[in-house]
Design goal:
With 266 residues, the chain is an alpha/beta fold. It has 10 helices and 10 strands. The chain is 38% helix and 24% strand. A 6-stranded mixed beta sheet has the order 6-7-8-3-9-10. A 4-stranded antiparallel beta sheet has the order 2-1-4-5, covered by helices on one side. Strand 7, helix 6 and strand 8 form a beta-alpha-beta unit. 40% of the residues are buried. The structure holds adenosine-5'-triphosphate. Adenosine-5'-triphosphate binds next to helix 1. It holds the Pfam family ABC_tran.
Length: 266
């Protein structure tokens, strides 16, 4: 099947994931649509990162089905999985940069793994990606220890974009940033998504991001998605956790500032 024609880029059905006697995800189902920015929200410890890590194959599942780009993970050969992996980029919560490599070398890393490019071309592509996320040429030869939190996030995003992915997974991209840097990062994600036609799967606690960047939101509670839809859908939800989260003071402040992306069509 030609995945470029499919509207659903990630399909998760009845997913069960746990550790020893703890069940974290309990028959969870979720679709991620091509070209959307999906925000996954939930209480601390509800399993958002576990969901992300299970989808990308870092955490084993106990039951259920995960299909990405029309490939069922269980049926795909190791070669096929490696091929699919080329089509996504991941930005982990703390950036997860290699401390012994420069900014440029960090961005080159996935290219070294997956592409057969000359040293010169690889370096050039890395510099282009770093420019796309707003890093200046003089930052490219710095080491991660010399970067601010916001710069670290941008480098991690550039690395996630290294292979021209179709899907980008972002785990709490704005955590640890001040409100202005967080807002700049939100704008960057939105711009890149539009210009590159990316599908974005974003785990976040940031109500401003959910309100201004995400086209759709999925709320995780008790191992399942308990609400899905626009920010307005979340506001109208009667689920106790969703109600408490989206109708709390912080949510009211977020909705006062700007019109919602989630309430607008794609
Ligand atoms: N490798 C692991 N081994 C054992 N338990 C784990 C592992 N990874 C996650 N967990 C547990 O799974 C649960 C969900 O963790 P997860 O990190 O997905 O939460 P989260 O919703 O992303 O939280 P936060 O918003 O605080 O980042 C937690 O109880 C956590 O302790």
């Amino acid at each position: 099947m030609d995945s470029s024609k499919s509207q659903t880029i990630i399909n998760v059905r009845d997913l069960v994931v746990g550790f020893e006697d703890q069940t974290v995800l309990d028959h969870l189902s979720l679709d991620v649509k091509r070209g959307e920015i999906l925000g996954v929200v939930g209480a601390s410890g509800s399993g958002k990162s576990v969901l992300l890590r299970t989808i990308i194959g870092l955490v084993p599942k106990r039951a259920g089905r995960i299909s990405i780009l029309d490939n069922d993970r269980d049926e795909a050969t190791p070669e096929k999985i490696r091929e699919i992996e080329r089509h996504w980029g991941i930005m982990f919560q703390q950036g997860a940069l290699f401390s012994s490599l420069t900014v440029r070398q960090n961005v080159e890393f996935p290219m070294r793994e997956h592409l057969n490019l000359s040293d010169r071309l690889r370096a050039e592509v890395a510099r282009t990606k770093l420019g796309m996320v707003g890093l200046s040429p003089e930052d490219t030869e710095k080491y991660p220890s010399e970067l601010s939190g916001g710069m670290t996030k941008r480098v991690a995003l550039a690395r996630a974009l290294a292979l021209d992915p179709q899907i980008v997974f972002l785990d709490e991209p704005t955590s640890g940033l001040d409100p202005i840097a967080a807002s700049d990062f939100d704008t960057l994600i939105k711009t890149l998504q539009k210009t590159l036609g990316l599908t974005v799967f974003m785990v976040t606690h940031d109500l401003d991001s959910l309100h201004t960047v995400c086209n759709r939101i999925a709320a995780l509670c008790d191992g399942k998605m308990v609400a899905e839809g626009s920010f307005d859908t979340m506001l109208a939800s009667t689920h106790p956790w969703v109600k408490a989260y989206f109708q709390g003071t912080r949510a009211r402040n977020a909705t006062l500032s700007e019109p919602s992306s989630a309430s607008r069509p794609n």
